[in-house]
Amino acid sequence: MSEEELQLHFTYEEKPLGSYSSDSEDLLEELVCCLMQLITDIPLLDITYEISVEAISTMVVFLSCQLFHKEVLRQSISHKYLMRGRCLPYTSKLVKTLLYNFIRQEKPPPPGARVFPQPSDGGGLLYGLASGVATGLWTVFTLGGVGSKAAAAPELSSPLANQSLLLLLVLANLTDATDAPNPYRQAIMSFKNTQDNSPFPSSIPHAFQINFNSLYTALCEQQTSDQATLLLYTLLHQNSNIRTYMLARTDMENLVLPILEILYHVEERNSHHVYMALIILLILTEDDGFNRSIHEVILKNITWYSERVLTEISLGSLLILVVIRTIQYNMTRTRDKYLHTNCLAALANMSAQFRSLHQYAAQRIISLFSLLSKKHNKVLEQATQSLRGSLSSNDVPLPDYAQDLNVIEEVIRMMLEIINSCLTNSLHHNPNLVYALLYKRDLFEQFQTHPSFQDIMQNIDLVITFFSSRLLQAGAELSVERVLEIIKQGVVALPKDRLKKFPELKFKYVEEEQPEEFFIPYVWSLVYNSAAGLYWNPQDIQLFTMDSD
C-alpha cells in the first residue's frame, strides 16, 4: 500500500480520504519513535536479541516504500518522520547502536533462551531470514558488467549485525530534505574515535564517538559481503576521521587483502561489489604514505592467488598483479570503460612509489602493454580494411573503428605514463621492471614515432637504449642474475638529468553528480536479497525494473 494508506491505518479518527488535521495525535510517528527507543535503549541480552532484530526489521520495512517506485524518492512521509520532529534527537544514538551491532556480530541466542517459540523444523520468522531465503527466489538486481552475477545470500552468523548494517545503509542513503540535509549521513560523516579528546565543532550536529579499532577489525573481517564493502566505501569516502585513522594503521594488509580477493574473484562477484572494491583502492592510493608503505609489507603464501605460486611478495606488488588481472579480464569479457579508468587511475597513483617490484608483477605490467599493443594493431588493421571496402561499396555503414582506436590509444598512453612515472621517480628501486622492458623492447619500437606517444616514449626509449648498450658490452649468453647485476650497476651510472620530468600522475575519486541514482537501488537490492519472500512480493517491486546501467 502507499504511505498515505498506511498512515490512515494509524489515524484513529474517522476522516474523509486524503484529509488529515494536525491537531490529532500522530500514531505512526509514535511507532517510529518507539522502534528507535527499542533499538537504542534496550540492552542486548539473550532475551532481547529477537525483539531488537524485529524492531530493526520493522524500521527497514517502514522505509521500503522506495521498492514500489521506479524513481528515487526525494520526499515521503518516512523522510518527514526521520529527518525532523520527535525522531531527530535519536539520530546519533541510532547510528552508533547500528554500528556497534555490526562491530559485535552477536550470534542468535541458543534455542533455550528464545522468547518466541520455534516451529519443529527450526525455522521461524528470524531464522528464515538468517538462512538466506533469497536463494532460489527471484533475483532482483540483474547486474550487468563485471562478473554479472547477483550476490547470493550468504549464511548469516549474526542476523542482528546484518539487519543493523542494512538499516544503516538505507538511512545513510536517504535523499536530503529540501530544507535540511540527511542527519544520518551527517552522523556517519562526522563521528570520531573514542580516543580523540578534541571537542566537536558546534557546527557539527549528531556527532558521537566510537571505538575505531573495533570498527576497523570488523570491517576487515566482514568484506565478503556487498553491504560491508559498501559501508567501508561510505566511511572512507565521507568520514575524514576514519580515513586518516585507517591510512595510519600499520596492518593495512588486513584491510587490503580482502578487497584484493574480491577483485581476484571478479567472475563470482556482481559488478557493483567489484566497483566498490576498486573505488576503495582508488581512494587509498590517493595517499602517498599508503603507496609507500604497501611495498614494505611482505606477504607469504597467498593461497587464493592460483595463477602462480607466490611464496613471498610485497602487498604493493600483489595489488598491482590483481589490478592488472582485473583490467585483462575486463578487456576480454566486459569491456567496461569505467572499470578500466579506475584500475588505471589506481596504478597511476601508485606508480611514482613503486618499490622493489616482484619480477612477476613487472612481467605482468609489460604483458598488459603487449596485449594492448596487439589489440591496437588489430583494430588499426580492421579500420584499414574497412576503409578499403567502403571505397567499393557506398551502401554498407562502417563500424566506428576510429572511436575504438581512440579508446585503446588512451589506455596505451596511460600505461606508458605509468611505466614512465616509475622510471623517472624510482628507477633504482625497480631492476625487475627494467629487465622486463629490455626483454620485450621490440614492443615499444612502433610507438616511438607515433604522434600520440612520442613525448612519453622519450624516457622509456632512453632507458632501453642505455641498458641495451651496457648488456652488449657485457657480452652474449648472460644469465638472469648477471643481467640484473648489470642493470643495478647501470642505474647508478645513468645521469638522472637525462630523464625528462613529467607532471606527477594523480587521480582523485569524485562521486557522480547524482550518486543516489546508483546507491539507492543498490542498497535496496541488498535489503531485498537478504529478506526476499519475508516482506515483499516480487511482482510488486518497481525499483529494479529500471535499466541495469
TrEMBL record:
Keywords, in A-Z order: Lipoprotein, Myristate
Entry superkingdom: Eukaryota
Cellular component aspect of the GO annotation: Golgi apparatus
GO terms, biological process: Golgi organization
Family, similarity comment: Belongs to the dymeclin family.
Protein name, per record: Dymeclin
Species whose genome carries this gene: Rousettus aegyptiacus (Egyptian fruit bat)
